Amino acid sequence: MTGSETSPTFRLAYVPGVTPAKWVRTWNERLPDVPLTLVQVPAADAPGTLRDGAADAGILRLPVDRTFFSAIPLYTETTVVVVPKDHLLTAVEEVSVEDLAEEVVLHPLDDVLGWDQPPGEPAFERPATTEDAVELVAAGVGLLLVPQSLARLHHRRDLTYRPVVDAPQSGVVLTWPEEATTDLVEEFIGIVRGRTVNSTRGRTRAQTADRAKDGQGSGARGKPATARGGRATGQKEGSGASRTAKSARAGKGGKGGKGTKGGGRQGGARRRS
């Protein structure tokens, strides 16, 4: 794993429609000295951005190349159909693919739903972008199926949308090159998974080292340190109690000295364990 010191900032790529704001806020609270830079990229360009090292991780839409990238599912979006506000489909709360059979359905070149051909009648040509397709919907040329976040992103007052219950959906993932799993990537993974600030897996190496310097280490290494730390005070403060307990068991208050030796041996056993 590459140390986080090689990346003074953390660069997070994200595609249109996704909203990383809540995770960015948590990052800024936990790592105020490590700036997080957002890099917005078109969905088609996002994998290349990560491959080229222009971002450390990204919030992308499926599919991703799992032979190169690691990925953590975040959520799945509902697919909606964007229609003019006076369209007949606005009379219902949701629609099915079959309801679109006689409609002209636009298929932009940057489509993220991954189907070869949307339902309905094809348009004469494919719009270059989703934004262009939304403009054509407003002009009455056809309808458009997109993830709900993209419908919101390109919202217009003269358009609305309805959920399509049986259409393909868009899965959103946190992804990064598997061989570039840095400490800062691990930190962001912890944030999106909801780990607390005190989680060992959620701390960077630098933070863990600082805790160790302060004598706050955890796990197997911390136990011997605690035992050694107790040696100076444990014999001084605990020997009286050891004598009392030994004398009480033996019923011979005059042999407290032997009790002290016995207590020392027991204390040593505890340190070795």
UniProtKB/TrEMBL annotation:
Pfam families: LysR_substrate. Gene3D superfamilies: 3.40.190.290, Periplasmic binding protein-like II (3.40.190.10). Residues 198-273 are annotated as: Disordered. Residues 251-267 have a biased composition (Gly residues). Transmembrane segments: none annotated. Residues 198-207 have a biased composition (Polar residues). InterPro entries: LysR_subst-bd. Keywords: DNA-binding, Transcription, Transcription regulation. Residues 7-194 form the LysR substrate-binding domain. Belongs to the LysR transcriptional regulatory family. This is LysR substrate-binding domain-containing protein.
